[in-house]
Fold this sequence. Notes:
This is ABC transporter. This protein is an alpha/beta fold. Helix content is 34%, strand content 26%. It has 10 helices and 12 strands. A hairpin with a 2-residue loop joins β9 and β10 (216-221). α4 packs antiparallel against α5. It is globular and about 65 Å long.
Amino acid sequence: xxxxxxxxxxxxxxxxxxxxxxxxxxxxxxxxxxxxxxxxxxxxxxxxxxxxxxxxxxxxxxxxxxxxxxxxxxxxxxxxxxxxxxxxxxxxxxxxxxxxxxxxxxxxxxxxxxxxxxxxxxxxxxxxxxxxxxxxxxxxxxxxxxxxxxxxxxxxxxxxxxxxxxxxxxxxxxxxxxxxxxxxxxxxxxxxxxxxxxxxxxxxxxxxxxxxxxxxxxxxxxxxxxxxxxxxxxxxxxxxxxxxxxxxxxxxxxxxxxxxxxxxxxxxxxx
Length: 271
């Protein structure tokens, strides 16, 4: 049985339904990447899996039990979450924010400990923000902030890590550094679930893809089995070729030439 799953999930904001009767399984020990066009429900699904968004119907299950039934600290020991647009608390420095990732490990009779100190230091080293420790978070660039938030999620030391667009605001070098780090954490045994926009990044790093469109899952499986030219055109409306990445052998999406795409989209005029 997969540790994390959702059954008959309906998610909505007020009266606007985003997904309905959605079934999803997150394979244990996988690096699962959720892809799809804007507003298809990717981030909404991730919020539900993290218990940030309460379903209108159906349920998310953790270890076979409805996640809503667990105490918050118990969930926080199992799931770490990097949201898409986290709000920076005013007047807080980097090290203090990363340390908040240890909240679930604090108890009345067990306050800050050397293991907490090492978890925070390790998370900051891995995300290369140690030299920012004393800087105010709201003074950092978007890319620096993103790495600090990732450090906070890593400091939780959870077996399952949920990341909503973790490469947002990052330049190309840091995008690969973050994804390489995620791959290393996956190889160490963590289950990673990430929302990504770049299909080639998704195919290169994921062991499992979930493809969404219009609030529904239209495909799920290994990138080599899922990512086809027909699927990309159907879901993203982009004519393309899918070839083998020369470095990794994973699927690589190559959009057709602009002139060919324009010719295909141009209406046919009858005489």
